[in-house]
Design a protein that fits this description.
- The complex is a heterotrimer of chains A (389), B (299) and C (577).
- Chain B contains 11 helices and 9 strands.
- With 299 residues, chain B is of the alpha/beta class.
- Chain B has a single domain, classed as Rossmann fold (3-Layer(aba) Sandwich).
- The longest helix of chain B is centred in the C-terminal third of the chain and has 22 residues, at 270-291.
- Chain C is α/β, with parallel strands linked by helices and 577 residues long.
- In chain C, the strands form 6 sheets. Chain C has a 7-stranded mixed sheet, with helices on both faces. In chain C, strands 9-17-10-11-12 form a 5-stranded parallel sheet. In chain C, strands 13, 14, 15 and 16 form a 4-stranded antiparallel sheet that branches.
- Chain C starts with a helix and ends with a strand.
- The chains are: A alpha/beta (389), B alpha/beta (299), C alpha/beta (577).
- Chains in contact: A-B, A-C, B-C.
- β2 of chain B pairs parallel with β2 (18-19) of chain C.
């Protein structure tokens, strides 16, 4: 059934359909609508779940971890500082191999306080072992959230569904909300591979000596390495059931492109229009959308380009002292390829600044006109400011 | 062979666990699980017990345990309880088991949140009055007069120990109590009571000595906690619904022998001990007033 | 596909199900606790070596029959001793350091009376017959005890008594207000129930000894001191013999008396005579050569006598008795102390004053008794003799053992019982292990390296392995004992003229007795309080029969079990490298 939903509510609908059993959450703009809706669903019986209004994000994840240890399908949502506050427990949930699903609404980190979109919050968590899936629109948010439970429970790793603040979280779009029955067929009840059980007592998460810690870390990586394959298999089923799929990366008009715009999140939608317009004008433009940031889909990316192409990576994030984070990751996976395209790096839209078709076309032009990428990221549309104020 | 009434026979600790010799925290857990039995799940934040419970692939407990991050005992117990509830398991008791650091300090917010929400679990704090696992640094449970690695030399701690039971009672939780490892029947009775009470977090504050940190011979580990009770320095009492106080016993000994038997207080002068005595006396008077205690009920 | 995918995903997490028992924390230990029962001071002081802490422990649980049987293992006369023993146990009691000593004496009497009223039988303690016969001469406390313990050890006993009823000093020497007839009757009957044949009116003369030696495997001589010592002063024939007087009273001859009755002597007999006299209407005056503090009589008895109105004249010695106007004129010489004798009593000599004349109506002598002398061990000259603490073992044709007052330094009922027990052990050892083994076997049967002998230790019964170390007050964890006053059975207020030959001190009620037994520290013995097991942080103490076992695989040697043992049973030793 097609409904007009804001991005946050697409998450809520997916969580309802996934028959999540425990939700723990703490309010933070712009994530709040997700859990408000879910608390209503729990209150009025649309969901048979326990909703824990905890006193902090740290506790939200702490409770989620324990609920997953108890064998319940578990969900939480957060954003920005909330995610940073959870940081310790993101590591914990991965180490404990718990299939927790979390919606993370990209928001800038303070100070100065800024509630608008920026990917630096989620990308700062890239080493915590969470699977990260970035979404372009409301439909993708819903579909990805439903699939995320399948994926998390298959590989025993937590999954973060990432959506842009306001541009996606608060933007209403038509979303096809599937029937409960079809979701049930796609997503069976959670059957944990381990859980707290008084009949079969075990001690979870205890002291591990150096002689075994490394093996356990390696084991997490092995699970991570299976993720792109598992995700594709799950999407195959999803496609069979619902007729939609996204892939870890999506290439559009890339085969003969001279300049390929590499984007993620809501910038993708804008970029589709820009690339379409450029193609209409005879420009050999292409688009690559990176949906899966962790694990970074190296094989899919290496196979997507030819050495003569130029890649223009648009990062709505920044790693101080380095550069745009998607660009770094991309360069890293391409470095080991025998022939590799040139990577041009652009920083745009931080703190919710609008990334317009004009911005993206500027990036396209700059890339097309240069032969060699600059060493540093290029910051787009910077205003002149008086630092003396 | 006669066994003690009020002390169930079965233990849920395995020998071979990693507690130091004479560990009061190990005794505390032993009593708690004797009371709660096999249908118990333990939530264990970072603390001495994080080590005592054993190293992979061994476990020191016969009940399920989940280790959790330092600050999260209250939240984790809430989450586990939620999972059990939603799966229809109302029989199992969730026991959050934290040290004083994990309760008074870093875990206080999480505990307070759970207490305010009225979560259904038992929270036990085994209090050894400092961060013992990391080498005896002060916590907000460290008492006046104690020397620790972070209150060293002449900078021994000059602030009072946080009154955690009062803080929890202020949340109007259905049941809060103190216990000492020197009184097994009393502690076990309180855990049994805590298991049966519903309608919120049940909080039990256990004085559990640490021979290394308190600088006492290991064999005195039980005796020292008894003296704490007998000198009213650590009174045994219960608070129902945050309002109704029951004092379990009244001590009649001065604090001096308790203080003097411990190396952690060895630097204190007689005047400073007298000051501690005054604090204990006024705290006890205040407690008695709260209990509106015309008679002490000994249970 | 989903399940397939799941099964392939690696999942190695810190999830542990193996117990820590594989981790032998005992390796950390440098001191080792052990469970070792020890000796209580009361028991080490009790002439008969009664297991008083165990009796206290059992009685505190209300198990009166078991408590009684525990006494009977060491002493055939709980009720007699509950009335007449001078209870040195109470003086030794560690509890006195906390508040007051445990009223062992009252407890024993309560248990003893229960044994009679409930008809408990001691025959469970009997071992099978060994086919040997022993003759016992004299049915006083030593002879009865020898016969009782010999029966317990499987001997068949014939006990010969010259008088018409058995009991010796118990019957003829102790007044009924101290030891009622029914108590004696019942406790002697129980000895007979052990299989002892008592032959009364059978005087063993030296001539019959040979006959006995032909028919018996061993002979115990416990005929005691039946003949009073004389003063050797002019007019002595006008004085009555105190022991004869007591005997007449026990026979039921209670003449009304009046006037002043002088009683010469300072021992228990003098007190008994005086207290009997006051009951018959006379005004007794004890005349003793030394000071009050030197009197050999039990101080409790002396105090009771003073309470009842008996007068005592110290440091005076009769030198002559004359008749004058139907009264007796007693001439007394006052004495003065000049230092101490080897036993610590004052040495006295006549002072310089002139003799005093005292007009009295009666004079009784009670200055001691001596043997009738059938056989005197000291005159035998047999070098096959072993002088023991409470008896003398000699070997002629058959073993002949002398005991009771014939050999005892201290002439108390308890010491007489100890003597009979020692003789029984010596005879038993002789037949099982030979003459040379006697000293050693008796030596190892001692309680706490002191004189008392324990039959339980001799028989190596369950509690025999106790360490001889005597528990002192500092070994007790007094945290487990709160100040509790000693229970005192309510004494009926005494009024002049109400004195009778009935025992006036009431016995404990069961509740009082159990309450009093609960005051016992149970020094050195395990009372199953379970502290060691309950407090062990390492789950390394378990219950086994007769105590606790420490699992040294895991015990870290913290010592809590030792510190928390209320009674000093657990001990800590440094680990041997």
């Amino acid at each position: 059934m097609i409904r007009i939903l804001e991005g946050n509510h697409a998450v809520s609908e997916a969580v309802r359909l996934a028959r999540v059993q425990v939700i723990s959450a703490y309010p933070i703009t712009p994530q709040t609508h997700i859990v408000e809706t879910l608390s209503e669903y729990c209150a009025d019986g649309k969901m048979n779940a326990r909703f824990l209004c905890v006193e902090s994000e740290h506790s939200a994840m702490g409770a989620a971890i324990a609920a997953a240890m108890g064998g319940a399908r578990t969900f939480t949502a957060t954003s920005s500082h909330g995610l940073a506050y959870m940081h310790e427990l993101l590591h914990w949930s991965t180490g404990a191999r718990l299939p927790i699903v979390m919606a993370e609404v990209n928001r800038a980190m303070g100070p100065g306080w800024n509630i608008w979109t920026d990917q630096t919050d989620s990308l700062s968590q890239r080493d915590t072992g969470w699977i990260q899936l970035y979404c372009e629109d409301g439909q993708e948010v819903l579909d990805t959230t439903v699939s995320a439970f399948r994926l998390a429970e298959t590989v025993n790793l937590p999954v973060m569904i990432v959506l842009d603040a306001f541009y996606l979280s608060h933007t209403f779009e038509p979303v096809d909300v599937p029937e409960q029955g079809s979701v049930d067929r796609f997503l069976p009840p959670f059957s944990p591979r381990f859980a707290m059980d008084t009949e079969n007592p075990a001690n979870f998460g205890e002291l591990v000596p150096p002689g075994l810690y490394m093996e356990m870390r390696r084991n997490i990586q092995l699970a991570m390495e299976s993720v792109p394959g598992c995700f594709s298999a799950i999407e195959e089923e999803f496609f069979f059931q619902f007729g939609r799929r996204y892939g870890p990366v999506e290439c559009w008009m890339c085969d003969d492109a001279e300049v390929i715009m590499v984007v993620s999140g809501t910038i993708t939608g804008t970029c589709r229009q820009v690339v379409g317009d450029l193609r209409g004008r005879g420009e050999k433009a292409g688009l690559m959308k990176i949906k899966m940031f962790r694990p970074f889909p190296a094989r899919e990316i290496r196979n997507a380009f030819n050495p003569n192409q130029k890649l223009a990576v648009v990062d709505r994030n920044f790693s101080f002292g380095a550069g745009g984070i998607f660009a770094q990751e991309l360069k890293a996976v391409l470095y080991q390829a025998p022939d590799r395209p040139r990577v041009f790096e652009y920083i745009a839209g931080l703190g919710g600044r609008d990334v317009t078709p004009k911005t993206l076309e500027t990036i396209y032009r700059m890339t097309k006109e240069q032969d060699t990428p600059k060493m540093e990221s290029v910051w787009i549309d910077l205003n002149v400011v008086d630092e003396g104020i | 062979m006669k066994h003690r009434e009020g002390v169930p026979d079965i233990d849920y600790l395995y020998p071979g666990h990693l507690a130091c010799p004479g560990c009061g925290a190990a005794i505390a857990m032993k009593f708690a699980l004797k009371a709660l039995g096999p249908k118990t799940m333990v939530v264990l934040p970072a603390s001495c017990w994080g080590i005592i419970a054993g190293a992979y692939p061994q476990t020191g407990l016969k009940v399920p345990v989940m280790h959790t991050a330092f600050a999260t005992a209250g939240a984790a117990a809430s989450g586990l309880r939620a999972a059990l509830d939603i799966k229809g398991d109302t029989e199992t008791t969730v026991l959050a088991w934290a040290g004083d650091g994990g309760t008074f300090d870093i875990g206080f917010q999480s505990l307070s949140g759970a207490a305010e929400r009225g979560e259904d679990f038992i929270y036990a704090c085994y209090d050894n009055e400092a961060y013992m696992n990391t080498g005896v640094q002060r916590s907000s449970s460290t008492p006046y007069g104690m020397r620790t690695a972070t209150t060293p030399g002449t900078s021994w701690k000059r602030t009072r120990k946080k009154n955690i039971v009062e803080a929890l009672a202020a949340h109007r939780i259905p049941y809060a109590a103190t216990a000492s490892i020197a009184y097994p029947e009393d502690m076990i009775r309180k855990f049994v009571r805590a298991r049966s009470v519903k309608g919120g977090v049940r909080f039990i504050h256990i004085l559990a000595s640490c021979p290394a940190g308190w600088r006492i011979p290991s064999e005195s580990a039980v005796k020292v906690t008894r003296l704490a009770v007998l000198s009213n320095l650590f009174p045994l009492y219960e608070v129902k619904d945050g309002l109704h106080y029951t004092l379990n016993m009244e001590g009649n000994r001065p604090v001096r022998p308790y203080i003097r038997m411990q190396g952690r207080f060895s630097h204190l002068t007689e005047e400073e001990i007298e000051r501690i005595q005054e604090m204990v006396d006024s705290d006890w008077a205040l407690l008695k007033e709260k209990a509106n205690c015309k008679q002490i009920s000994i249970k | 596909m989903y399940e397939q995918a799941m099964s392939k995903i690696p999942l190695l997490i810190s999830r542990s199900k193996i117990s820590t028992e594989g981790h032998k924390t005992g390796e950390w230990r440098f001191v080792t606790p052990s469970f070792k029962e020890k000796t209580a001071p009361c028991r080490a002081t009790c002439p008969v070596g009664e297991d008083i802490p165990r009796i206290g422990m059992i009685a505190s649980r209300g198990l009166i029959k078991e408590a009684w049987e525990t006494i009977m293992a060491e002493n055939p006369f709980p009720c007699v001793c509950g009335h007449v023993c001078f209870h040195p146990c109470e003086t030794a009691c560690n509890r006195a350091f906390l508040d007051e000593s445990v009223a062992v004496h009252h407890l024993e009497r309560m248990i003893g009376e229960a044994g009679i009223s409930e008809g408990f039988s001691a025959s469970v303690l009997k071992t099978p017959s060994n086919g040997k016969r022993v003759a016992v001469v004299g049915s006083g406390p030593s002879g009865l005890s020898a016969a009782y313990f010999l029966s317990m050890l499987g001997f068949s006993c014939d006990l010969f008594e010259s008088k018409d009823q058995p009991g010796g000093i118990l019957r003829w020497g102790i007044p009924a207000y101290r030891l009622p007839e029914w108590v004696l009757q019942n406790e002697i009957l129980r000895v007979e129930h052990m299989g002892v044949r008592i032959h009364c009116n059978t005087r063993i003369t030296p001539e019959r000894i040979g006959e006995i030696m032909d028919n018996y495997s061993a002979l115990f001589m416990g005929y005691g001191h039946g003949r009073s010592v004389t003063m050797g002063i002019p007019g002595e024939e006008m004085a009555a013999d105190g022991l004869d007087f007591l005997l007449e009273i026990r026979r039921g001859n209670l003449p009304a008396m009046d006037g002043i009755a002088a009683v010469i002597g300072g021992g228990n007999a003098a007190i008994d005579v005086s207290r009997s006299l006051i009951r018959l209407g006379a005004k007794p005056l004890i005349i003793y050569r030394r000071s009050l503090a030197d009197m050999p009589a039990f101080s409790k008895e002396v105090n009771a006598a003073l309470d009842e109105g008996v007068q005592i004249m110290e440091t005076a010695v009769p030198v002559r008795i004359e008749e004058e106007d139907g009264n007796l004129m007693l001439r007394l010489q006052k004495m003065r102390a000049i230092g101490k004798d080897p036993e610590g009593r004052s040495r006295v000599v006549p002072d310089d004053s002139a003799p005093i004349n005292l007009c009295v109506q009666h004079v009784f002598t009670a200055i001691g008794a001596q043997s009738d002398g059938i056989l005197n061990p000291k005159e035998e000259g047999n070098d096959r003799a072993i002088p023991l603490s409470h008896s003398m073992f000699t070997l002629s044709k058959i073993p002949v053992i002398y005991g009771g007052d014939l050999t005892n330094a201290k002439r108390s009922v308890s010491d007489a019982i100890a003597s009979g027990k020692q003789a029984a052990m010596a005879i038993d050892t002789y037949f099982h292990h030979g003459f040379d083994a006697i000293r050693e076997r008796l030596n190892v049967s001692r309680v706490g390296d002191r004189d008392p002998l324990s039959m339980a230790i001799y028989l190596e019964t369950d509690r025999a392995s106790r360490s001889p170390k005597v528990i002192s007050y500092s070994d007790i964890n007094t945290d487990y004992f709160s100040n509790t006053p000693r229970h005192i059975p309510q004494t009926i207020p005494m009024l002049r003229g109400e004195l009778s030959f009935m025992v006036k001190e009431p016995v404990f009620s069961l509740k009082e007795g159990v309450g009093e037994a609960s005051r016992c520290f149970h020094c050195g013995i395990c009372n199953d309080c379970d502290n060691c097991r309950i407090f062990c942080p390492d789950i390394s103490v378990s219950c086994v029969e007769n105590g606790r076992r420490i699992n040294l695989d895991y015990c870290k040697g913290c010592g809590i079990c030792v510190a928390e043992c209320p009674s000093g049973v657990m001990e800590l030793e440094e680990e041997q490298p």
